[in-house]
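Researcher: We plan to redesign the surface later, but first we want a full-length starting point. Tokens attached.
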């Protein structure tokens, strides 16, 4: 099994150098550029650009040809994070204050918007490598991804207003695929395949693989949100301020309908359902109240269910991908990253 941290560490400096070509650190007003660089400087795994690069490598393409696309996607990811933190009222990102906490909501929204514009500037710079036709295909995929991700985010936000009984497994799977499956898996894998001149079947196989690991990534994120220790510091490589770097059990306070919440409520008895209705999404919820919900999740095996769901999803994705993607170093790396996404502790 490939060392995923080494894989990511080789691609990360290439991505950051490319971002630096399009996003200046100095300018007027300086507050804009300081803010835009905050989340990049806080750290991060850069696994989405790595998916583009390694999907390309899996089809014997050149990693260096993917860098503009990887940089554009990382800029897009940062734009999503800035606006997501505002929407969720999250105070912490990567162990440090969220952008809207540091600069205020108006500046943070504008910083996100500015980065969105930089996504297209960075993508278009790749035309010298890819040519016009391939560049247009990548632009189409990225544009589609933005729209579907926005739809998924809207599904999640809207559902918080509804009773817990209104949320089903079918709803969760659709939401997770739209919100995370595309931009954290399917789209980067497809872009890598296109850059490598993959066949339609190969690109479709990479797309399905990416969808699966994107959803599995989200599930593991949700598990970490409620299982991370407040006393044990988990230090994530190349991040600032500690391990998981988000509010403890923030998903419960925000009222997010995670797989854990959906499963627990479905299996809970009348008393526990009542507790969940009262506490999930409660403003100023206490740590003890969060722990009550976590205890209910444990009682009904929701954490183990989510872990198994993510694991089974990844195993099937790897099995299906192997049917169309030849065994190469790149494919081995893709499989390693898929496993890493569900085993990670940060």
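Model: Full-length starting sequence:
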């Amino acid at each position: 099994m490939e060392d995923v941290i080494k894989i990511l560490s080789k691609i990360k400096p290439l991505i950051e150098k490319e971002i630096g070509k399009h996003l200046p650190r100095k300018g007027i007003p300086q507050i804009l550029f300081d803010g835009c660089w905050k989340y990049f400087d806080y750290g991060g795994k850069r696994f989405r650009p790595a998916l583009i690069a390694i999907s390309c490598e899996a089809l014997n393409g050149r990693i260096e040809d993917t860098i503009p696309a990887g940089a554009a996607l990382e800029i897009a990811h940062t734009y999503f994070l800035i606006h997501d933190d505002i929407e969720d009222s999250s105070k912490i990102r990567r162990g440090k204050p969220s952008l809207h906490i540091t600069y205020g909501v108006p500046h943070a929204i504008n910083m996100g918007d500015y980065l969105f514009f930089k996504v297209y500037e960075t993508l278009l710079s790749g035309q010298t490598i890819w040519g016009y036709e391939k560049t247009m295909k990548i632009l189409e995929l990225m544009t589609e991804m933005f729209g579907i991700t926005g739809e998924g985010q809207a599904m999640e936000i809207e559902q918080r207003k509804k009773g817990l009984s209104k949320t089903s497994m079918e709803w969760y799977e659709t939401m997770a695929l739209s919100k995370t499956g595309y931009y954290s898996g399917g789209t980067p894998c497809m872009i890598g395949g296109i850059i490598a001149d993959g066949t339609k079947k190969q690109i479709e196989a990479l797309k399905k693989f990416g969808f699966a690991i994107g959803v599995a990534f989200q599930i593991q994120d949700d598990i970490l949100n409620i299982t991370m220790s407040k006393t044990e510091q988990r230090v994530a490589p190349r991040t600032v301020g500690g391990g998981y770097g988000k509010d403890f059990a923030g998903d419960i306070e925000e009222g997010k309908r995670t797989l854990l919440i959906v499963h627990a409520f479905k299996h809970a008895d009348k008393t526990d359902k009542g507790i969940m209705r009262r506490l999930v999404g409660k403003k100023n919820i206490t740590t003890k109240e969060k722990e009550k919900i976590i205890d209910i999740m444990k009682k009904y095996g929701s954490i183990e269910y989510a872990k198994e769901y993510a694991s089974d999803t990844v195993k099937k994705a790897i099995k299906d991908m192997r049917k169309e993607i030849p065994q190469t170093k790149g494919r081995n790396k893709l499989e390693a990253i898929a496993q890493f996404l569900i085993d990670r502790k940060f």
